[in-house]
UniProtKB/TrEMBL annotation:
SUPFAM superfamilies: P-loop containing nucleoside triphosphate hydrolases. Coiled coil: none annotated. Residues 237-382 form the DUF4143 domain. It holds the Pfam family DUF4143. This is AAA family ATPase. Residues 39-163 form the AAA domain. InterPro entries: AAA_14, DUF4143, P-loop_NTPase. It comes from Metallosphaera hakonensis JCM 8857 = DSM 7519.
Amino acid sequence: MSFQNPWWTDRVKIYHDEHVSKISSLKPRFVIPPPEGNLLVMGPRQVGKTTFIKTTIMSILERGVKPTEVFFFSCDSLKDKDDLVSLLSQYRSLVNSEGGFIFLDEVTFVRDWNVGLLHLFNAGYLRNSTIYVTGSTSLYLRRETLPGRPLNKVMMYPLNFRLFFDTFFRRLNVNTASLFDVKGFYSNALRLVPYIAELNRALMEYLRKGGFLATNYVEGDPLPPLYEIYKDAVLSDLAKLGRDERTFREVVEKIIESYGSRISENTVAKRTSIGSHNTVSSYLNLAEDLFVLRIFRKVEGNRVNNKSFKKVYFIDPFIYRVMKRYTKGVGALDESDMPHVVEGVVGEHLAREYERIGYTFFKGGKEVDFVVRNLGIEVKWGSGNLKDLRMEKGYVLTLDEVGGNGEKVMLPVSIFLYLASSDRVFYGR
């Protein structure tokens, strides 16, 4: 217990922590201000949740809080709620019987952790305390986590393109715009046209490095030094859940092969050794719960068709590269990859900002890449035409073309992503 909390004996030891010292030495320094209240912070492995916790601890100690009132524990070694209850009971009885700050990292793999935490709330062990817990899977969060207790659930994703540009390039004085006001969005977009060369250069960098902080602090290509770390993080979580790596690999390989196209569980099952479409479906849902990928379903009017074909993208372009190397042996982005990877980036950005994002498909082969309510987004990457959008209202996204016609406009992908994204790190759901 004390090994994970060296500041109990000397508060300046927080600056020796590997996460704190690394982020403090980097330029630019990216420190995330914590939201208020008790938090459950969800997000993919290696996204920076532990760094967020450690820099928050640093800020708390710098405010003069008594060091023993700040408790951190990485929960990878805990098996179930009994271990968790025992741990916090010991902390309260041996170290600090008063209130304070409690940080439980990667708690969601502890069996029935929420039941144990609720017991501690009810028993008074967490009185006058602020609780932060983190996790890398949303698998157990489909039901209420702590009934009657405030625990705000937030998602922490890799940096979106706006934050990426603001952090590693420069901040532009243009606010996030609503997609549904197409004319207003287009008007704001025109203000960014003078920066198109810089925005496009940044987008190419984003496609190569993604939005993970660690990948962007590596000189050159981050895949060679970080591939094993990111791959093993996913496979480790898979093993903890008792799932078969070979099945996971086959599913991922078919996603890579059909990237940007509609797929069905039946097709994947028939083209692999898996055999069962139910098994394929369970692994797709699992990968989404582990924040590896995002599934987009067909939208028909105001209804989501869960039985129709799906479009599946990885939540970050760097994860695409990791999974491509994992299944194909090479993680380089070929020219043929670019349109589909860009399409996935657009879809991910939309899904973070808006509810019920899907795609639609009309008879005769007419598809709209993404649909948000009555608005469509078609991603062409190279060149495009307003006629490419088979809806009355929306956007056609290209590399560098600009044009407008009332409720249908054409914009560069980089400008669209910058305007459509917020500057927040945490997303509530």
